[in-house]
Amino acid sequence: RSLVLLFAALFLAQISFVNTQSPDYQWTLVFDLSPTTDGTLVGPASSGSISTTMSSDAGPTWSFSETSDETATYSSTMQANILKGTYMEYGNITFSTGNQISFSSITDNGSFMGFAGDVQYGAVHYEVTGGTGIFENVKGAMTDIFTREGASIQLALWGMCWKS
Questions:
Q1: Could you report the per-residue pLDDT of 115-128, keeping only the tens digit for each?
Q2: Whole-model pTM?
Q3: Is the dihedral of CA 88, 42, 143, 16 positive or negative?
């Protein structure tokens, strides 16, 4: 019993040290990606608003509304582990000229989770490892859920980072 109390006290002490500072940058984007001949994935995401509407008599609904012609560009390289059904991924997102973040999955945590009909789906989380321009010396995290149908990949991505 005293061991349980000790772990509980250590857990509560750890919570008090959590950084409560708001991120310097935060984004939620929907990218439309395509593979290239050199094996990278590239594609744009438009500026937009993503919303979820809750209803007491139906499930949640999700919508994306494009708000401008400004785009961000995603570029990454994947290294699949076919035996495990996982992958590693690293790359960058360019938000505007000279302003880019770099990211890398943490080990091979990308997962091809399954199929819904002809649509494959999965997820991955990344470490934001730095960047250029306004993103110089940032650290942070991103997560995504993807769907793939044929060669078309849609990536719903959420990320945040802090200047170090």
A1: 999 999 988 999 99
A2: 0.80
A3: positive
